[in-house]
Amino acid sequence: WKAFFTRCESRGQTPFPYSHSKLFGFLQSGLEARLSLGSLKSQVSALSVLFQRRIATKPQLKESLYVETSMYCNERGLAVTPQGGNTSLVGGSVPVFDEILISTALMDQVISFDDVSGALVCQAGCVLESLNQYLGERGYTMPLDLGAKGSCHIGGNLATNAGGLRLLRYGSLRGTVLGLEAVLPDGSVLDCLNSLRKDNTGYDLKQLFIGSEGTLGIITALSILCPRKPSAVNVALLGCEHFSKVLQVFTLCRDQLGEILSACEFMDSESMRMVQTHLKLINPLPDNAFYVLVETSGSCGKHDEEKLNIFLEKAIDSGFVTSGTVATNQGKIMSLWALRERITEALALDGYVFKYDLSMPVEKLYALVEETRARVGSSALGVVGYGHLGDGNLHLNITAKSHTDTLLSALEPFVYEWTSKHHGSISAEHGLGFKKRDHIYYSKSRGAVHIMQQLKQMLDPKGIMNPYKTIPPAD
Ligand code: FAD
Ligand code: MLT
Ligand code: ZN
């Protein structure tokens, strides 16, 4: 809270708490005098008039609205939180104190698509699934996919540098995004919206905005390189009795499936229990300690099936897998994917969830889950491990009846220290947002964070952009 007030004061602003119960509790203990609710309320209503006027006069929303809003907020020192689909898992997209929320929901137009190069140019508020549908009709696909595809915006995906289910095949957004346009806090427009695959003229400024979580400006449009839609897709769900076998399956996948491998995900028996219990999904295999979901995508069905069969034979003969099932039709493919993609949803139905998104050397992934399980014992309802095996990305989730400080102190700093000790990252793909901001030092040196603070200061000198998220304040 102290940091919060300091940040407000440095923007020349007093805070406007409207939703945070803890803050209200804190304010009741004697700090009311510092607030000027009236003045901020009138700022917010002036802004909403500005929005309504602009939307009414310009139904085809352009970045100009963001320019005006940024200028307005910058002049008055008003904090701003950009919001896309609001699917952030680290509290990045929600205003927690006095921030004004700026949504990209109405910026949902495709600007152009080049069906020779596969370069798609679109506004930031396009929903990922809608883009995929648009491209599918033209024989292309988006280079990223994630469970939240029906809600998340492509601008939000860039702002978080989302990884997802096909990073193994198509690489990170840092490679597939060709250009972007962003409105900076002072209302100026940074135009880096080109669609070139090669461009070595100076610093690559778009990279600063990829993964910046709304702290440097609002991404309003982008250009992204899309691959051809694969005409043949197969999915196999395999059961393994030990995590060492999961690793052997992964190695065999890379060896045997090579260029057609498009996803390699894993989940443990606890993850399976969650989707069975809360979503009534059916496990087509006998109970196993671990499950690996392997997807192949290519352009020749017969060739891919042959490769997959050889892989499966080897996996069974070598004793890596104890059971398995293969899907080639769309319905079964989707039901196998649901077992993996819907774990997040099932966990939320189990109780309060402590979520960790970690990357580390792949052979270490499950040791952390086992140690955590032993550590928390019966104080947790479930200790669940799943993730993007191919990317060395573990999602460790601990569910409990409710949030307790005792459980929290059993988990933190233990999980972060363990990850740091094994040279991992404490946020592989979800970002830091509000929840993990102050843990940045487990994965970044003081020197690196200092440069981030300087970059933020340069682009956002008044500190209005998502001020309580991602980058901790300078000491
Ligand atoms: P929001 O949640 O609205 O915002 C996220 C952050 O980006 C915030 O800090 C916000 O301020 C900022 N932001 C949003 N839009 C802009 C903009 N236009 N300009 C500047 N800043 C902006 N993540 C993964 O990486 N991989 C997964 O596999 C994955 N699976 C998920 C599955 C489920 C079921 C859920 C609920 C979430 C999952 N996520 C995953 C997390 C989340 O979906 C991603 O982080 C996603 O990229 C967020 O997009 P969004 O549009 O919802 O952004
Ligand atoms: C996933 O891979 O399912 C997501 O990143 C969401 C999560 O971690 O729960
Ligand atoms: Zn994930």
TrEMBL record:
Keywords, comma-separated and alphabetical: FAD, Flavoprotein, Oxidoreductase
InterPro entries: FAD-bd_oxidored_4_C, FAD-bd_PCMH, FAD-bd_PCMH-like_sf, FAD-bd_PCMH_sub2, FAD-linked_Oxase-like_C, FAD-oxidored/transferase_4, Oxid_FAD_bind_N, Vanillyl_alc_oxidase_C-sub2
Cofactor: FAD
Record's keyword annotation contains Ligase: no
Gene3D superfamilies, sorted: 3.30.465.10, 3.30.70.2190, 3.30.70.2740, Vanillyl-alcohol Oxidase, Chain A, domain 4
Catalysed reactions, as listed in the record: (R)-malate + A = oxaloacetate + AH2
Residue intervals of the FAD-binding PCMH-type domain: 42-229
Enzyme class: oxidoreductase
UniProt keyword Membrane present: no
Protein name from the UniProt record: D-2-hydroxyglutarate dehydrogenase, mitochondrial
Organism field: Ranitomeya imitator (mimic poison frog)
